[in-house]
Each structure stands twice: as C-alpha cells, then as structure tokens.
Specification:
The protein has about 90 residues and is mainly α. It has two helices and two strands; from the N terminus they run αββα. Strands 1-2 form a two-stranded antiparallel ribbon.
C-alpha cells in the first residue's frame, strides 16, 4: 500500500471520528430539551443521554477507530512485506 493512500485513509477515518464526536456532543445538547419528554428511570431522557449515552458513543467511536486503524496497519505491513519479497 502506498504511503499516500495510507495517509488518505487515516485522515478519512480520523475526520469521520471527529465529526461523529462533534455531532454527538452538539446533538445531545441541542436535542436534550426535546428528549426530556421521555424518562429513563426517574431521570429525564435528555439528562440520561447527555451523561451516559454520549459517553457510550464516545467509547464506541474510540474502539471503532482503533479497530479500523489496526486493520489498516496490518494491510500496510502486508503490502510492504509483499513488495520487499518481489
């Protein structure tokens, strides 16, 4: 895998993770008053999503980014070892 393609993919996945993070951060605060119409246990849903749901989504973003980057690194290493053997 060429370095240019590798870094383009790294940038894509990093920007996607940042956009998701930004969307969750602003989305929860923007829609929290609308979510307060429902309740999770004794707490309003807006408060629950702002405290618990957003953190869960952040963790999913981190785990997903790590998984994708691991796969990308493996492909890059395989491509480089294949190019050296030829």
């Amino acid at each position: 895998m060429r370095a240019r393609v590798y870094w383009r993919r790294v940038r894509f996945w990093t920007v996607l993770g940042l956009v998701l993070w930004f969307g969750v951060t602003l989305g929860v605060s923007w829609w929290s008053s609308a979510l307060d119409a429902w309740r999770v246990g004794s707490m309003p849903a807006g408060y629950w999503w702002a405290t618990q749901g957003a953190i869960a989504v952040y963790l999913l973003i981190i785990v997903g980014h790590g998984w994708v980057m691991d796969r990308l690194e493996r492909r890059c290493a395989q491509a480089e070892s294949g190019m050296r053997a030829s």
